[in-house]
């Protein structure tokens, strides 16, 4: 096996990351997947090793923010940090990349079918593999390829087929490119222009209608996450918030604070005293301790409506195999690693002043799960997403997280208020346009307005079921056709 058999797949796996924010060199994801498809399906030599090195680069660099989280928040040594990161990386590769190797071997026998059917079949396999990211390892729907269509005309696919529809489009075009490279080089060069055409920037402007329904203010405290649980620092967090509050507009009917900003739970007397110094209609992230369980929650301080976070972060808010791992190193005994998940069913949340104004409330990682967001917006008027992106440090994580929020706004045709501890806090309209934001690391107040929207998109009504059903149907029909052909021979 030559060195290029290691280096080339590594490079193609690596360049795909640059399609995502903050780089947003969108055509690269097409070429990255075109190479992967070409090597898995149209080449027989060293298929396993090429998939391994493509995945190593793709997941290794795309999830590199995990190093920041483990090193700084776990207060571990660099050696222990990299051991943990490698273990997590291997889990991701086994869960999301290894199935492609075994499926690709099965697909080889189907390649006698029409070439277009082959490409649809390969694209369907990739869609199903990407879809499993919502479930395997408790769900890690990160690096979803369809998200790179943001800020292009192609993002208009989101209200109809969601982010999965965007991924399917990318996989089909990548499959066409892979097939052409293997059979018709001239056609490849023609097809290679499509990614660039689809990546042409397109500005989705916010409506000029100024008849807004709600004025609100977002507080971005930008407190030091490393001191949060130190004795005496709670009062500094409170004082910081009190100093920022006068910056909220006098017309604001709602104030939003980020995820779990205070180091004590809502049931603590200190929280009661904190509320006494706050205006009415404050929605904020809090720790909530109930029935001897700790929850990561959102609370409306005026009516005590509460939402508990459903999708917890593995090795952050809960520890898989905790009995075996706790006590080994301090990372596995972090205060947040004992959190209980909220209920899957929809948790009602209202503005205290208007009982008929239903809000979709989501905490941090929740926003990455498209189906969870869709279900929470069946009767909502807008979305509130609180987050603590200090976990990402200065990595690429916060940029990607912001883009995911924008996709959710488009999919569900809802305005989205995003409050993050140290950025990016943002006002996002129903077209995914960032109306205003506070940058990463800045402290401040963001005043804005939004419109209530009740109209649901096609995606909001049906989810990604059409794309998933199409993918499974392609696999089923192709298998039946292939079986019939073998019988006839």
Note down, in words, how this protein is organized:
With 489 residues, the chain is of the alpha/beta class. The protein folds into two domains: 4-202 and 464-488, no CATH class; 214-456, Carbon-nitrogen hydrolase (Nitrilase/N-carbamoyl-D-aminoacid amidohydrolase, 4-Layer Sandwich). Strands 1, 2, 3, 4, 5, 6 and 13 form a seven-stranded mixed beta sheet that branches. The model has no long low-confidence stretch (mean pLDDT 87). The longest helix has 26 residues, at 158-183. It starts with a helix and ends with a helix. The radius of gyration is 24 Å and the shape is globular. Helix 1 (4-15) runs parallel beside helix 3 and helix 8 crosses helix 15. Helix content is 44%, strand content 15%. It has helices at 4-15, 27-42, 47-62, 65-73, 78-96, 98-108, 115-131, 158-183, 185-191, 194-198, 233-244, 269-276, 322-325, 370-376, 397-412, 458-462, 465-488; strands spanning 214-220, 254-256, 282-290, 293-300, 306-308, 339-340, 350-351, 354-363, 382-387, 416-420, 425-428, 434-438, 444-450. It contains 17 helices and 13 strands. Strand 2, helix 12 and strand 3 form a beta-alpha-beta unit.
Low-confidence stretches: none
Q: What is the CATH C level class of the largest domain, in words?
A: Alpha Beta
Biggest β-sheet strands, sense, barrel: 7 strands, mixed
Count of helical regions: 17
Provide the residue-averaged pLDDT: 87
Beta-strand residue fraction:
5-15%
Domain unit count = 2
CATH superfamily grouping of the largest domain:
Carbon-nitrogen hydrolase
Please state the second-level CATH architecture of the largest domain: 4-Layer Sandwich
